[in-house]
Amino acid sequence: MSEDFIYFLWQFQYFRTTDLRTVEGEAVRVIHPGFRNPDAGPDFTQARLFIGEVEWAGTVEAHVRAADWLVHRHQYDRAYDNVILHIVWDKDPVFLQRSDGTVIPTLCLSEWADVTLLQRYQTLLAESGVIPCAGRITTVEPVRLTAMFDTVLLKRLERKAAGVKVLYHRVDQDWEETTYQLLAAAFGFQVNTEPFAQLSRQVPLKILLKHRDNPMQLEAMLFGTAGLLNSEKPDEYEAVLQREYQFLAAKYQLLTRKLPAYSWKWSKLRPANFPTLRLAQLVKLLASTGSLFSYLIETSNSAVLLKQLQVTPSAYWQSHYRFGKTSEKVLATLGQTAAENLIVNAIVPLLMAYSHHKDWPDYRERAVGLLEQLPAENNRITRIWQGLNIPVRTAFDSQASIELYKMYCQSKKCLSCQIGVSLLK
C-alpha cells in the first residue's frame, strides 16, 4: 500500500460513500474532497465535508497508518492544525490530536474501498516493462492519451522556461546574453552541453559582439578559451588563431578563464558532432545574425528558422573536423536534424520564458506551434512509444512522450497519470 493510492481514492472518491463513518463512529458526507497540495503541508486543501451535523472546511491529511501522523511529528506542527479529517488505510488504535489538544477524526478507507481497484493497481505496479501499462495502453481512449500528452508537454515546457528564467536573472536580466548562453549550451548536443555552457559564461556576448564583423577573431576567442588551441606544431590557420587569442585574451582578461582541454568529450562521437565543428558553426551563427534574441522570438515559421540555423562555418572547417587534420568529405553545414534540435531545446524554452516575462500568450502559442511544425525526434524513448502503436509524429508528440516516460512511467506514477487512472477505473 502506498500513500499515492490513498490520494487517488480520496481525490476521485473511489469508495463507497453510503453510510460513510469515521473510526470514531461519526457520519461523514463529502461536499468537496479538496485540491491536491504539491507543496509542504497537508495533502489536500480547501476540503469541505460534514462530520456528524457540523460542516467543516479545511485540509485533509492521508497516511497508510494512523500512527504515521506521530512518526511525521505533525502533532507539533501548527500547519496541521487546520486538518479536518485524517484518512488512512490501516486501522490502528491511535487517536490523534492537533497541537491545541482537539481530536482529529479519522476515516479508514480500506473499510469502504473496492478491493478489486487495489488489485488492478497492484497488477499495474507489478509490470516489469518500462511502460507499466504497455499491455493495455491501446485500450485507452485516444482522447485520454491526447489529454495526457497535452498535460505533460505543458509541464515540460514550464520546467524548461523556469530554467531559462534562472539564467536570465543570472546574466543581469539581459535577453541577448540569455539567448547566447542558451544556444551555446544547446550546441553541445547533450554530450558536450556542459563545456559549451561553461564556455559561454567565460566569454560573454558583449565581448564577442565587438568583433562580430571578424569571424576569425570570434573563433580565436572561443577556441582559445575552450582550451582547443593547444597544438605544439600548429598548422597555418591554428597558428593565426593562437596569435589572435593571445592578443584578445590579454585585452579582455580571458587568459584565466580558459577551460581545460579535457572538458570536451570526443569518444564515440561522429566527426560531424565534434565540438570543434560545432563551435565553428556557433561562431558563424553569431556572425551572421544581428540580434539573435529578436530574430528567434519573432520568427514563427520553422522553415525560416531552420534555414537561418543551418549555417556553414569558415573555409577551414569545410576541410577539417579537428585542427591539423585534413578530411576530404566534411559535413560542415549544420544538418537539419541538429537545427531542429536547437529549436526544440533552446528556442522553444526561450519563447516560453519570454511569454511568462511579458505575460503575452502569443509567444507560448508560437512555441507550441513550432513543436507542431517540426517532425518527431527519433530516440530510444520515442521508439518505445511507437512500438506500442502510440502515434509520435511531431516534436510536440516526442517531447510529450519523453516527459511522460521520464516523469511518470519510470517512477510508476500511474495514479498521477490520466492514462493509468483510466485503466484502474
Automatic annotation (TrEMBL):
Pfam families tied to this protein: DUF2851 (PF11013)
InterPro entries registered for this protein in UniProt: DUF2851
Protein name: DUF2851 family protein
